[in-house]
Fold this sequence. Notes:
Elements: H1 3-19, H2 45-51, H3 61-66, H4 70-77, E1 86-88, E2 91-92, E3 107-115, E4 118-128, E5 131-139, E6 145-147, E7 151-154, E8 165-170, E9 175-182, E10 194-204, E11 209-220, E12 231-238, E13 241-250, E14 255-261, E15 275-279, E16 290-291, E17 294-301, E18 304-311, E19 322-329, E20 332-341, E21 371-379, E22 383-391, E23 397-398, E24 401-406, E25 411-420, E26 423-432, E27 443-454, E28 457-473, E29 478-488, E30 491-500, E31 505-512, E32 523-525, E33 531-534, E34 537-540, E35 543-549, E36 570-577, E37 588-599, H5 607-617, E38 623-631, E39 636-644, H6 651-662, E40 665-676
Parallel strand pairs: 8-13
Antiparallel strand pairs: 1-21, 2-28, 3-4, 4-5, 5-9, 6-10, 7-10, 8-9, 10-11, 12-13, 12-20, 12-38, 13-14, 14-18, 15-16, 15-19, 17-18, 19-20, 21-22, 22-26, 23-27, 24-25, 24-27, 25-26, 27-28, 29-30, 30-31, 31-36, 32-37, 33-34, 33-37, 35-36, 37-40, 38-39
Helix pairs in contact: 5-6
Keywords: Membrane, Transmembrane, Transmembrane helix
Region (Disordered): 347-366
Transmembrane segments: 46-68
Amino acid sequence: MNTQNELLKNALGNIASREFPEGTTLLRGQPSGSARMISQWKRHPALAIALALIALATVAFCFFKLFFDPGLIGVRNAGLGTNPNSSAAPTLLPPTPTSGLAEVPPTMLDQSQTRQGVTINLEWIALNNTGLVAGFRISGLQEGQTIGIPEAGFENVEAQDFRGRILQLYSGEVLTGEFTSLQVVNDPRAKNGVDLNLQIPLTDAQGNVIDTFVFPLENIPANSTSPRAGQFSRADKIDNVMVRLDWAKLSPDMTQLKFCYTLPKDAEPLNKSDIRIQSGYPAEQHTQGTAADELLPAPGEDGMACTIAQFNRNFVDEDTPVLVTIDRIGEMTRTWTLLVEPTGRGPFSEISAATPTPRPTPDSQGASTLNANLIWAYADKQRIALEMKFDGWQDSFMVQSFSGKDAQGSAIEGYAMPYREDDPSDYLLQLSYVPGMLNDDGTVSMQLDVPVYDSSQPDLPLASFRFDLNDLQVYPEISREINQSVTANGITMQLVGIRYTPSFSTIILCYNKPPNVGSNGDWWPGHKQMTLTIGEIKTTFDSGFFLTDSDPRYSGKPSQPSDLPSIPDGRCIELGFPVGNLASENAQTATLVIPQLEVSQPEVIPQEDIDAANALLQEQGIQVEQHVFFSGSGGGGGGPSIIQKPAGMSDETALEKLYQALGYQYAGPWVLTFELPAE
Length: 679
């Protein structure tokens, strides 16, 4: 990736974390029952597209230019706004190195027990609300003896069942072990200290328990942040066939993993060649893995068959994730993928504690010749945009965000994006308009601080530029009643009205909903191909807010128009588009096109619905299956996967046909053409 592309990637990543709430997804579908399917989206359509490209190492700068905001481009090209003709020299910031994050160490214990001639010294334990990590050393093991998988029992707090356990045994002068139990401790009583029993079994080579060490622990703090706890793929489910990983044991001599899995009726159990292991993440390389050397018996659980797969390989000293794949269960040939990422080494007495190494800070003097020029400013009652051009720019420099205050003293903040493909020193700054910004004369004034960063260290600015922007004209927002309706496929769309500025438009739309899919009545216009054209400028959907619904399960926007129509089994919404009326002195024709309605998709599509859709799609040569995974931390995800489609058909087209077969789409189209009169 070249410097400019890397710069864009970093900028988009930082903006993504700031502009989109945690958990927001760019993928199709929202949880069933979502009251406002798309209300969280900001008015940044370019970001929604560009963020999906961040994962591509070669993201092209021209893509951003291609998908940029047509409303702001329109007002810029039309000459709206003003040139503040303002420049600023940098305020250089000191090159303070970034220190490591403060970590809360584990609780030191130094408890010792001897059983059957074997001594275990429990040195430390790290406990927090996601689980625990315990460190111990072992001496006196005889030939054929080993340490089994420990368990933790909580006494004074409630803890969820474990969702994965990892035992790591390290060779050395004295054998050391780390045990990780991923189980959520979400009990407010934990803040006062946790009482628990840690049980460590001594077993023979076949896993039979010889004896058990029991360590009663009291008043353990539940706020440790080190060592870094390992990660664990709890389960992987394809259609109705699930593979669950219960524990992993990594030692110098071998690696063992306990699986439980759905075994179809009359199917043969897993054999050694079905299970493969390798170090690293890439599931697509699983054919390079090593097959299991032995499968040890384990009793079935929860209606599933279980086994312990043993690999005569040392992964514990490689300090790398372990990837396990299962390629066949019964007659079903797929790839179930599970990942174990070991826990970081804890503070054993013979290991010196790791000291965070400060990252070198780029010398801020490199920005001493940099100047910033504010060359365009625009404001309407939807948003404010500024164009800033830098002299003395370097390829590694970047602007991510800015802050300041308005004339009333209220804090403001916004984000910045590269503006021109051929000039990386040109940035567009944006922030939302807030009514409280408005001065008595209908203008806005603000003081802005714009920091410049180096892409090698994007959390510490090199320099900052201050601008005073005074008496910027604010273009008004105009409201029009439309009250136009069109009916297609039994659904009537009523365009109640429109609010527009020169750069942005908000449509108020009401409609009766199609029949529910199950209990889900959360029908929205399909935003993928929905467009609004005003004059010669056409743009796609940008944002949406839910207003009212006849179904009391869906609560609307607190402030809403008082004259919305009441529609049986219907709803009213707002739709935002980044296009406005640039030529308000002349009448303009506007056209809203809604190709289809879509119901919000559940997190996991019921298997019976997948089966019914496959029956409908069979004649078209399309078949899908549901792929769901669960992590040890309690999260998970998944969705449909295409396993058969006609030659030349894209996955996107096949998925669209699946959603149609599932009843998640309701075809239109609805086309509403209306006039915006001259002002």
